[in-house]
Design goal:
Oligomer: homodimer
Largest interface: A-B, 59 and 59 residues
Strand content of chain A: 15-25%
GO molecular function (chains A, B): acyltransferase activity
Organism (chains A, B): Candidatus Fimenecus excrementigallinarum
Helix content of chain A: 25-40%
Structural class of chain A: alpha/beta
Strand order of the largest sheet of chain A: 1-2-10-15-14-11-12
Protein name (chains A, B): Stage V sporulation protein AD
Order of helices and strands of chain A: EEEHEHEHEHEHEEEHEHEHEHEHE
Distance between the termini of chain A: 28 Å
Largest sheet of chain A: 7 strands, mixed
Radius of gyration of chain A: 18 Å
Pfam families (chains A, B): SpoVAD
InterPro entries (chains A, B): SpoVAD, SpoVAD_sf, Thiolase-like
Chain lengths: 344, 344
C-alpha cells in the first residue's frame, strides 16, 4: 500500500525489488564509454530485420528476454508489463512484446518512459497488483530520424543543440522485496511544464524546467536536501539541458546540486569528444539502457546507495511543431536504493 | 491494496468511487441516439480552434473541466491523471491537459484507453497512491482521418467494414468509496492478441479476439458466468466485430453471452440506419463518451448494477500497415457496479 508523502511523492513501504535489469544497444552506443556494461551490443543496427521499426521492436524483445533470464523468471511469471516508446502509436512496444503473453499496459512519456514505467511497476508490486512486473522501453536512431526529422538517406544536418536518439532498449524486472537486491523506495510523477520553448532541435532546453520541478517536488516532499541522494540521474538533458537544469534548480528552487551528485544519461552514454553526437544522447532507450546497466550495477554493489532517476520527456509531435506549438515537457522520478544487505 | 483473483484479474477491495463522469461530443455524435445524454454537444467540430488536433485537445480539456465540476473538485485536488489518445505522441492529451498542473501519467492503448486509464486510476486510488485520480481520453474524426487515412479534403471512400472515429472525449473522476456512487470493483488488463488480420479497414475483426479473451479471462478468474453481469459493454467492435466477438466467445471459450447482456459502444453512439457511419463508431472517445454518459447514468440510478466495460484497441500504426504487418490488439476490462445504497 503506497504511502503519500507531501503533495507529489509516493513511498513504497514494501520496497519492491529490482530483481534484474537488462540493456541492449546498437553499434554507436557499443562504441561509447559504457560498452562493457551492456548485456548485448548489436554489430548491425538493423538487428537483421527488414525495417528500422522492426529492429526497434527486436531491441525491446531482446531486453525483456534477457532481463527475465537474469531474474530467473519466465514470461508467464509476469503479471504486468509497462511499456512504451517514441514511435507513432508505440509500435516498438506492441510489436516487440506481442508474443510474450504478458498483460500489457501501454504507457507514453516520450523519453521519460523508463521512469514512468518503473514508477507504475513499483506501485503495482507494492499494491499487490502484480507479483512480478516489468518495465521496458526502447528507441532507435534510424526509426526516430525518419519519423521525427528526415530519412537518413537525405543526409540532413543537425544543429549543435540537437541530441542523438539512442539505439537501445532497457528492461527491469520488479518483484517482492529481497534484501540483497536494489529496491524502489519512492516515485514522483511529474506535472507538465511548458515554458514556451519551440525549438524541436533543442529538447534539452525544453525539458530542463520539468526536471528541475520534479526534483524540487521530490526533495520538498521528502523534507531533504540533495545531499540525501548519492546521485540525481537525469534522463537525457544533454549538454545544453544539463547546465540549464542545475541553474534552474538553484535559481527557481534554491537547491544547490553539486556537479558530483548529478549525472545525465545522455552524457554518460557517448563520448562527445570522439563521437559525433552533438549535445549528447536522447530517446527512451537512453536512460533505459544506462539505468539498467551501469547504474543498476553500481547500486547492486553498493557503490551508489540512493539514486533518483529523473527521466524527462518532450511531449511534442511533428504535427504540433509544424502547427507552431511550444513543447510541453514532463519529468518522472523514481528513487532506487542499494540492497539492504549491501555494504555501507 | 489490490487483491489478485485468478491469473489476470485484480479486485479493488476498497471499492473506489466513480465520483463523476463527463462526456463531450461533436456534431455527428450529437445527432445520434445518445444526444440527450452528453454534457456538451459542440455545434462545430473545430471547437473554434485553428486545427483539428487543437480541437481534440480542447475536447479533452473540456471533459476534464466538466467532470471535475460535477464532482465538486478542483484540479489541485487531483493527485494523478491517466490520459492518452490516438494522435501521434498522444498530443491530444499532453496539449489538452498541460495547464491543469495535475501529475500526468500518459497511457497508450489505442481505443482501449478508457478502460486502461480507469483500471490504473482505480488501482491508484485503491492503493492509496491517489486520493483523487482522473481517467480521460479523446478522439476526433478529422484528426484521425488525416493521420491514419487521408485528409478529409481528398474525399476518400471507406469500405462497409470501416468504422467512424468518434469526435468525443470522456473523463471520469475517481476517489475513495462513497456508498451512493458507482464504484470500480475489478480490472483485467489484457494480453496482446494477434490472429493475423491485416485489413486496417476492418478493425472490428482484428479486435474481436482480444475482447473475447479478456472477457473469458475475467469470467474464469471471477469463477462466474456471463449471467453475473448485467452488461458486457465492448468498446468499439462495431457491427462486424460484435458478431465475431459473440461467436468467438462461444466457440473458443464455451461462453454463451446473450444479446440482451451485450452492447457495443460503437453501435450505441450512432444510428446506423440514418447516419453514414459504416460499421459503427470507434476511436478512444467512443467508449469514453458512451461510458461517461449513458452507462454511468444507468449505473447511478441502479438500472444497471454490474457492467463490464471491455474497451478494445488495435495497436497498429500507419507505418506497420505499410510494412505489411498484421494488427496486434488488446482489450482491457473494468467492472463497474451500481452504488451500494442504490435500489435493487
Amino acid at each position: 500500500m503506497a504511502q503519500r508523502i507531501g503533495r507529489y511523492t509516493l513511498r513504497f513501504p514494501s520496497h519492491p525489488a529490482v530483481l534484474a535489469g537488462a540493456a541492449v544497444v546498437g553499434t554507436t552506443e557499443g562504441e561509447g564509454p559504457l560498452r562493457a556494461e551492456f548485456d548485448r551490443v548489436f554489430p548491425d543496427d538493423t538487428l537483421g530485420e527488414s525495417s528500422f521499426e522492426k529492429a526497434e521492436s527486436a531491441l525491446q524483445r531482446e531486453a525483456v528476454t534477457l532481463a527475465l533470464e537474469k531474474a530467473g523468471k519466465r514470461p508467464r511469471d509476469a503479471d504486468l508489463i509497462f511499456a512504451g516508446d517514441l514511435l507513432n502509436q508505440c509500435i516498438g512496444s506492441s510489436f516487440g512484446l506481442r508474443d510474450f503473453g504478458i498483460p500489457f499496459v501501454g504507457v507514453y512519456g516520450a523519453c521519460s518512459t523508463m521512469a514512468l514505467a518503473l514508477g507504475l511497476a513499483g506501485l503495482a508490486v507494492d499494491a499487490n497488483a502484480a507479483r512480478l512486473a516489468l518495465a521496458v522501453t526502447s528507441s532507435h536512431f534510424c526509426s526516430a530520424e525518419r519519423q521525427f526529422r528526415q530519412p537518413l538517406e537525405y543526409g540532413g544536418q543537425r544543429p549543435p543543440t540537437a541530441q542523438r536518439t539512442a539505439t537501445a532498449a532497457g528492461a527491469s524486472v520488479l518483484g517482492a522485496h529481497e534484501p540483497d537486491k536494489p529496491y524502489l523506495a519512492a516515485a514522483t510523477f511529474g506535472r507538465i511544464v511548458d515554458l514556451g520553448v519551440q525549438d524541436a532541435n533543442n529538447m534539452g532546453a525544453a525539458m530542463a524546467p520539468a526536471a528541475a520541478r520534479t526534483v524540487a517536488d521530490f526533495l520538498h516532499d521528502a523534507g531533504a536536501g540533495p545531499d540525501s541522494l548519492d546521485l540525481v540521474l537525469t534522463g537525457d538533458l544533454g549538454a545544453v539541458g544539463t547546465a540549464l537544469f542545475r541553474t534552474l534548480l538553484n535559481k527557481d528552487y534554491g537547491i544547490a546540486l553539486s556537479e558530483t551528485r548529478h549525472a545525465d544519461c545522455g552524457l554518460l552514454l557517448y563520448d562527445r569528444e570522439t563521437q559525433d553526437v552533438h549535445a549528447g544522447g536522447s530517446g527512451c532507450g537512453c536512460s533505459a539502457s544506462v539505468f539498467n546497466s551501469h547504474i543498476l550495477r553500481q547500486l547492486q554493489c553498493g557503490a551508489l546507495r540512493r539514486v533518483l532517476l529523473v527521466a524527462t520527456g518532450a511531449l511534442l509531435s511533428q504535427t504540433s511543431t509544424l502547427q507552431g506549438e511550444s513543447i510541453p515537457c514532463v519529468a518522472h522520478a523514481v528513487l532506487v536504493c542499494a540492497p539492504e544487505n549491501g555494504k555501507e
